[in-house]
Design brief:
Elements (H helix, E strand, L loop, with lengths): L3 H13 L3 H8 L1 H15 L3 H12 L1 H18 L1 H13 L38
Length: 129
C-alpha cells in the first residue's frame, strides 16, 4: 500500500511549483489548487512546514518526501486536518470510464523498470485481424 501523504505531497509540490501538467492529469486543477491552499494555510505559522513546502515547490521530485513527513506530522497533531486533507485529495482523484471497445490504462505511482499492458499489442498488427 502506498503512503497517502507521499501521493498528496507530490501532487501539492507539482501544482505549487507551476509544473501542473502531471497534477492536472492526476486529479484536476481545482482539486490540486485546493490542496495547495489548504497546506499553505496550515503551514502559514509553522516554519518547519513552510520550509518543507518551499523545498518541495523548488524541486518536487527531490523534496516531496520532506513535505510528506511534514503533512504526516501535522495530521498526527491535528487529526481533523489530516481527515480534511485526505478527503480533499480523494475528491479530486480521477474516475476512469471505458465504453465498449475502449482501452483504458491507469498507473498510479512511480514505475521503476517497464510497465506492460496485457492484451493486444499496440506496436504491431492486430493478431486477431
Amino acid at each position: 500500500m502506498s503512503d497517502p501523504f507521499m501521493e498528496i505531497a507530490a501532487a501539492i509540490a507539482t501544482t505549487a511549483s507551476g509544473k501542473a501538467t502531471e497534477a492536472v492529469l492526476n486529479f484536476g486543477r481545482k482539486a490540486s489548487q485546493a490542496l495547495v491552499t489548504m497546506v499553505k494555510e496550515r503551514f502559514g505559522g509553522e516554519p518547519m512546514g513552510r520550509a518543507a513546502l518551499e523545498a518541495a515547490v523548488e524541486d518536487p521530485e527531490k523534496n516531496h518526501g520532506m513535505l510528506a513527513q511534514a503533512l504526516a506530522l501535522a495530521a498526527t497533531a491535528d487529526p481533523a486536518f489530516g481527515d480534511r486533507l485526505k478527503a480533499e485529495y480523494e475528491r479530486g482523484e480521477p474516475t476512469i470510464v471505458a465504453g465498449p471497445g475502449s482501452v483504458v490504462n491507469s498507473n498510479s505511482g512511480t514505475v521503476h523498470g517497464s510497465l506492460f499492458q496485457v492484451g493486444r499489442s499496440w506496436n504491431g498488427p492486430d493478431p486477431s485481424a
